[in-house]
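Field: COMPLEX_INPUT
Field: COMPONENT_COUNT = two
Field: RESIDUE_TOTAL = 624
Field: MODE = joint
Values follow.
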Amino acid sequence: MQILEGEGVTKYFGGMAAVLKVDFSVTRGEVVGLIGPNGAGKTTLFNLISGTFTPKPGVIKFKGEKISGLRPHRICRKGVARTFQEVRVFPNMPTVENVRLGALFGTPTGLSGAEANKEADELLDFVGLSALKDVPAGGLTLVNQKRVEVARALATKAELLMLDELMAGLNSTETAEAMELVTEIRKRGVTIFMIEHVMKAIMGVCDRIIVLHHAEKIAEGTPNEIATSKKVIEVYLGE
Amino acid sequence: MQYLFVAIGFLCLTYSGWFAERLLTKEKKGRLLTAGILLPVLALLATLPFYASGYTPILMTSLIMFVILAVSWALFSGPTGYMSLATAAFFGLGLYAAALIGKSVPLPVFILVGGLISFAVALIVGAVTLRLRGIYFAIFTFGLVILIAQLLVFWELHISGIRGRFVVPIDYNTIYYAMLILFAVLMLTVYFIRRSRFGLALQSIGENEEAAAHTGVNVTLVKVFTFAISAFFMGAAGATIATRWIYIDPYIAFNALFSFLPVLMAIFGGMGQLYGPIIGAVIFAYLQEELITTFAELYMLIFGVILVIAMLYMPEGLVGVILKKTEKDETPGWAILLPVLTGIVGGLAGWFAFRERRGAKELLKAGGVVTAIGVTLAIIIIFAA
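Field: COMPLEX_OUTPUT
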């Protein structure tokens, strides 16, 4: 079953197409990678799905229901959560409050205070930040701030998690841990759509990969197909 | 004697804010003791008209009015970081509401109506303008003050044909109590907002609005509603004080100074804590009250100097400086707050003692005030360094 579908999704900034007629779909339970050179339109596509922008023209559906045109908080409450390329934690709030906020506001029905506390504690334990729960999130290291973002997104009871360059700026140990985390999130039954530049990571964890180049989708397939695709190699390595 | 009562009022108001802040920190230690002090503090404020001289309740009313303006301004602009300059607009709407219906309905009703009109206007304006960020929002809100004032001028000139309006005067003590009750309601509102999930959402908007929206917070609703709540108290304060001003016209009611002063007061006091704007408001309002009568032409200059120094050396405000200091040496907050407050009160008291002596030269008085302020600020800055 398709959890997320996009048809002819397009976004212009002035006269420039940032995303042009992109069709895509994500099946429930999958881990789908979104790759492409800098400026290809990956983050814009994420912004279109999460409601920062509205596609014009184009339609995005989540669980068969149209979500394009809804405001970000509505889309979040429907079960689509995301992290950001440049981390966006709430720096002066304790880590646990960051996660609690997701549980209080982002869930479809809204949780009671006690339920939200429990959820936040459980998720901080899941991402391995229990010991730092009372530290202001702005004081954490980059890798830990990324974990806070993941926990905050999961706290919204998301069915689809969009990770925007989770591994950017991490060292090789941290990258391996982040890959492990993605696998663990998947085991919780969450579908994952991720932008990534670290090829090793994306080849290792993804079931399927979509390639964007100059705002358009140029390839789609299993990691193996993508790695051997002439078109993709051209885009990444030149002629 | 009067300065003593003002000092008592100052400490009582500050204490109420400090108490609310302390409740919010969820620290259990010494809670019973602090709660025990609150009752006599409130009793002191409530009984002020019985033992203080006739002018004191009038002065206190105006101080509390500025406290309400500064605290309600900080209620919205503090956590969200949206700099609103619309205070004068909402305050003025309250004043006008009192002028229009004050003759036909009792005091509580027109205070409420003044608040509700401001609330409604803020809802509409907020829904339109809160998409604007930073400087654009500030300019728009300031434009609102001028817009409403000019609309009223037009209306009075061409439709009603009335240049200015009289407000039915009400007994000074009654106004004092009305203002005090309004202050109490405001503090309770701020307290409940801060401890609720609504307050958490508000804070998240200030820290990262986009992340808040993508975490499920309805940022527009939270912003507009908070903006309207803060406008309610500004309007209610306007309606209350109108009964003391007696005569108003659009230029008096929509004086731009009422947009800027609450901002300056809140920033000077420090917005990080609930009691910051209270301290800032009382100090500034009292200085204004005193200086404007003694040397009208100098008081804005003195204000300016204080503000420049405050912005340069204590961007976190008076309270921020004190808290930073205590964090560094683990000295308890009151150990610094108390001398500083005493310093301020002492400086003012000294000046008053001096002023009472007949024949003292104007110049010397001016020197006295500036020295008192300068010494106090110097002490604070040395503390911070």
